[in-house]
Amino acid sequence: MARVIVDVMLKPEILDPQGQAITRALPRLGFSGVADVRQGKRFEVELDGPADEAAISDVRKMAETLLANTVIEDFTVRVED
Amino acid sequence: MARVIVDVMLKPEILDPQGQAITRALPRLGFSGVADVRQGKRFEVELDGPADEAAISDVRKMAETLLANTVIEDFTVRVED
């Protein structure tokens, strides 16, 4: 069993209201020194078999069609060590 | 400017309905070989200064108080290469 991580983040040019709300809340809560926060999604995909090239390619297709909205989001796929 | 990543995932013993919905949808969509999917959150925190020990410790406090609900969620903090 291998674990593949899919990270999905809004594209840089897309406004992120959740991240902005966090960024603005931080000074009120006593945290300084943070320029920006962006919020995205993280998926942990447990495979039945090994994380070979075919499996990774499948997960990439999965991310494209199901996990990310590629109009507004970018995603990365990586095998967890 | 340094970027610190905070990953927030439901604790393993907490039910993840979103992840379960994805796991169940996959075979219908033609994807096989996935045992489980869990969904969490990923935060990209841009610091004004370097990611030194004090800054990382601040981000950890931020994660504990604001980004994660530590009753049901675990989080990890790491500096992006």
Query: What fold name stands as the CATH topology of chain A?
Result: Mth169, Chain: A
How can the largest sheet of chain A be summarized? 3 strands, antiparallel
Number of strands of chain A: 3
- Tell me the Rg of chain A in angstroms: 16 Å
EC number (chains A, B): 6.3.5.3
GO molecular function, one term (chains A, B): phosphoribosylformylglycinamidine synthase activity
InterPro entries (chains A, B): PurS (IPR003850), PurS-like_sf (IPR036604)
Protein name (chains A, B): Phosphoribosylformylglycinamidine synthase subunit PurS
Question: What is the secondary structure topology, with strand pairs?
Answer:
Two copies of one chain form a homodimer.
Chain A: E1 3-10, H1 17-28, E2 34-47, H2 53-67, E3 73-79
Antiparallel strand pairs in A: 1-2, 1-3
What do you see in this structure?
Two copies of one chain form a homodimer. The model of chain A has no long low-confidence stretch (mean pLDDT 96). Chain A has a three-stranded antiparallel β-sheet with strand order 2-1-3. Chain A has helices spanning 17-28, 53-67, and strands at 3-10, 34-47, 73-79. Chain A has one domain: Phosphoribosylformylglycinamidine synthase subunit PurS (Mth169, Chain: A). The longest helix of chain A has 15 residues, at 53-67. By secondary structure, chain A is α+β, with helices and mostly antiparallel strands. Chains A and B meet through strand 1, helix 1, strand 2 and helix 2 of A and strand 1, helix 1, strand 2 and helix 2 of B. Strand 2 of chain A pairs antiparallel with strand 2 of chain B.
